[in-house]
Protein 1
Amino acid sequence: MTDRYVVIGNPVAHSSSPRIHALFAQLTGEDIHYGSILAPRDAFTHVASEFLRGGGKGANVTLPFKEEAFALSDEVSSRAKTARAVNTLSFDGSVLRGDNTDGCGLTRDLGQNLGFGIRNRRVLLLGAGGAARGVLVPILDEQPASLTIANRSVQKAHALLADLPSVDPRIASACGYGELAGASFDLVINATSAGLTEAALPLPKGLFRPDSLAYDMMYGRETSFMRQARADGAGRTTDGLGMLVEQAAESFFIWRGRRPPTGPVLSALRPA
Ligand code: NDP
């Protein structure tokens, strides 16, 4: 019997996860089917439970449900626990396990695909939702010179910081967009969902330098954040396709015990 997996989100039609996992399955010879489910905003638990009760083996969870997936899990990995967000659910028929592969997806894309080392760099993380939560500790593990979290709702950025197990206030801090005036960063990661509506973030001028990397977790096209960063002087910009493929590879490994190659999948997905 073919094992079934899905990605659950709202919106979800834009997700490349079904294509990525189909390619992983082809490359590894694993017999899986991977689909997608659009869950109503107030019905994630119902939708996920129905799928799993119906024989589904696992699910990826995308916005805005990662925190609900965390609450739904019977057991969570330590990285999901720190993030308080789950993007990978695995079900063995009795226990629902939650994990979070976003952080290692991001750091692997930066380190292995883009050749960008975080160590000793000044990092700005924009956003304080599930995606930001997932990448915070993996970024800190790479020992940046500093990590600033900025969010539209400032209290959410502070809450994210407060949830970290132990953090040196000289390294990590939280603020609103207005307080970024006068600062510049080596790496600016957009973990907001503003790009879904093409909304421009209220970023002050001077945030980027010619050797800065502007990294948008959104993927699939040149995003408004990438355009904004380039106009403000960022030397390098990228979308989050590499992160998506790397975090998917980690989910696939959790489910199937096999690590798929990511290079050919990234090449297949990138527009020529
Ligand atoms: P959430 O809904 O959990 O969080 C959304 C965040 O975006 C919040 O911080 C919110 O701020 C902020 N935001 C939304 N609209 C605006 C706006 N107009 N101006 C400023 N801030 C805004 O989403 P996720 O954290 O799950 O996902 C965020 C993004 O990351 C999505 O685009 C998602 O596709 C992408 N992503 C990509 C991955 C990849 O593998 N490439 C993996 C995970 C996510 P506030 O708190 O003030 O509402």
Note: The first helix runs from residue 17 to 28.
Protein 2
Amino acid sequence: MMNSQFLTSCSADAIQRAAEQLIAGHLVAFPTETVYGLGADATNEQAVRRIYEVKGRPTNHPLIVHVSSLNALGLWARDIPDFAISLGRAFWPGPMTLILKRQELARDFVTGSQDSVGIRVPSEPIALELLARFELLGGLGVVAPSGNRFGRVSPTSAQHVQDEIGKNLVHGDLIIEGGNSNIGIESTIIDCRNDTTTILRPGAITTEMIKSVNGINFSTAENRDLRISGALEKHYAPNAKVLINQSPIKGQALMALSAFETPEGVYRISSPENVSDFARLLYSSLRRADELGFDVIVVLIPEGQGMEIALLDRVSKASNGL
Ligand code: TXA
Ligand code: MG
């Protein structure tokens, strides 16, 4: 049972109230298909500052602006290339964030003073409903980082948000209960500021999917001039030490595909059936290892060039590059 004064259901009334609270300058954590976000009105400097405080996040890290449709892109971004529109048409609403040159509306407190802005249209119906109602009330966009303390594992349920930041919320803030996030890892971030496209953070929208879009000039070069907190060496980390693709030994926790047999003395945390299951269960499994007090969790990542890349990225960061 959740014990939270902030928790609210996802009924139409509750979502309407949450939209009103955003307009009033409060924080609202809400489910998205990737992970739970901690939302604030993207034009309200005070509200956005509170996000940084609540998360304990350095203020020069940029936030993603969430809007209800592709139509709002021009409000926040300028010089939008055609291929970015094509990406939006192909994968929005969905687990993709586009980095574009910013409009004036995207202020320094949103972009970390960079000349770019990250924009996403989430597909989770509760998130879309919240954004649509917020926009009907005159709102223009909702910034929402993952609702975890800085550097920690992203939340994939309302309970996780409560556990991470509940104690830092104040009267008027809300957490919308919307079950478990379907995808389970953060959106794919694509840099669209230049003629060539680069992936800044891999996710459920894979390289292959991006390359299939017309007009894409794909580059695998890394972009080092952008600040991206997920690109820090250690991120998404539980307390337990995370070991990747090593043989688990007695006393360790294990996450592996169901086909892998649990060695004797090893505690099986989860047994996903396939790669999307793996992503969905990854963060709750890392949390579970902590709750159970394990010092080590071994994660055996499936091999492949699809979402496996994103899994390897997140687990590598959780393991601090080990
Ligand atoms: O799936 C997601 O993207 C989730 C849900 C809630 O939408 N949000 C999320 O936000 O993961 P956050 O703040 O935890 O991670 C956003 C990443 C950060 O690493 C940030 O540096 C990067 O996006 N980012 C945001 N704006 C950027 C910009 N203008 N240029 C480069 N990177 C940017
Ligand atoms: Mg995050």
Note: The domain at 7-219 is CATH 3.90.870.10 (DHBP synthase).
